[in-house]
Amino acid sequence: MKVSREQVAEHRARILAVAASLFRQRGFDDVTVAEVMKEAGLTHGAFYGHFPSKEALVAEAVGQALPVAPDTAEPRRRAAEFANGYLSVKHRDNRATACLFSSLGTEAARGSADLRQKMTAAVRSRIDHLTVDAGGDTPREKRRAAIAAWSAMVGAMVLARLVDDEKLSKEILSETRASLPFA
């Protein structure tokens, strides 16, 4: 039975969404192609009709799941609002849709050049977004504050997920938020 172009596109989108979710939850190495395809409701053999390798799937799934540059037609989300959502228990506990940087950053650092390029572009975009509201008198000071804030947020999320003490986890999130240069 021949599959239409629309169905192929739907299958590919489903594979990418499932892969991104599973990768966030368990990491790249602990997710198999067979698991992704089963979760997507497709056969393992169909994978190679969409991707040449698991590494290609990783790069594309992560690239698609990364935040895009804010749309200029939409109101820009203020850095304070972003930080409040990012440093929340809800974000900490929802790994399937959580930030790729805090979920997969250390693994992505060892990934393909394509994956790292996509992650780099997303890091630049986030720093640019935060720079607008960061403290400082000069563009250089504002950028420095934005880089420090973004680094603190990602690091805090990693630590908040790592510790097995709920009170300490919440303290890491709240104290990091209190230290940021956004009102």
TrEMBL record:
Natural source organism: Bradyrhizobium quebecense
Gene3D superfamilies in alphabetical order: Homeodomain-like, Tetracycline Repressor, domain 2
Q: Which PROSITE patterns match?
A: HTH_TETR_1, HTH_TETR_2
**Domain HTH tetR-type per the UniProt entry, residue ranges:** 9-69
Q: Which residues form a coiled coil?
A: none
Pfam families reported for this sequence:
TetR_N
Tell me the protein's name. TetR/AcrR family transcriptional regulator
User: Which sequence ranges are marked TM in the entry?
Assistant: none
Q: DNA-binding region(s): which residue ranges?
A: 32-51
Q: Does the keyword Manganese apply?
A: no
Keywords in alphabetical order: DNA-binding, Transcription, Transcription regulation
